[in-house]
């Protein structure tokens, strides 16, 4: 585990990250290379009706309608391989615990680890689409 991943697993690292990103008016999610959630800000937690600790370790795919999985694959693969530092999705659909679909546009950026191939973590922004 890298120092960046270790920091995100510590209570100090999570507290610092939360103080920086919880006031955002859009979702911020950090996932590892397997697509497991390491951190989700308050916006994403609220939309998903959950809390940060409850989401940690869950797969990002669990929160999207199956019809959005191919788009999510492309978004994450582009950044994970390091082929693109920044990748944007078309419209995708989050599925809330109440069964509601929320249309979102997502961007993903790789968090590069100089000691590894490609990107170690992916930083994802999730914006509600207004259509």
From TrEMBL:
Q: Which domain of life is it from?
A: Bacteria
Q: Name one Pfam family in it.
A: PAS_9
| Database matches in InterPro entries | PAS (IPR000014), PAS-like_dom_sf (IPR035965)
- List, alphabetically, the CDD domains matched: PAS
**The PAS domain, residue ranges:** 13-83
Name the Gene3D superfamilies for this protein: PAS domain
Q: Which NCBIfam families match?
A: sensory_box
Identification of the protein by name: PAS domain-containing protein
Which organism's genome codes for this protein? Fluctibacter halophilus
């Amino acid at each position: 585990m890298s120092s960046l991943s270790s920091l995100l697993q510590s209570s100090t690292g999570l507290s610092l990250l939360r103080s920086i990103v919880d006031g955002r008016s859009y979702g911020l999610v950090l996932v590892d290379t397997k697509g497991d959630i390491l951190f989700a800000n308050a916006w994403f937690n609220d939309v998903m009706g959950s809390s940060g600790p409850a989401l940690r370790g869950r797969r990002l795919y669990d929160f999207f309608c199956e019809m959005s999985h191919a788009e999510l694959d492309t978004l994450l693969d582009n950044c994970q391989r390091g082929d693109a530092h920044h990748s944007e999705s078309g419209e995708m659909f989050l599925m809330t615990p109440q069964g509601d679909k929320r249309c979102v546009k997502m961007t993903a950026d790789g968090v590069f680890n100089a000691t590894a191939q490609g990107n170690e973590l992916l930083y994802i922004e999730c914006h509600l689409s207004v259509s």
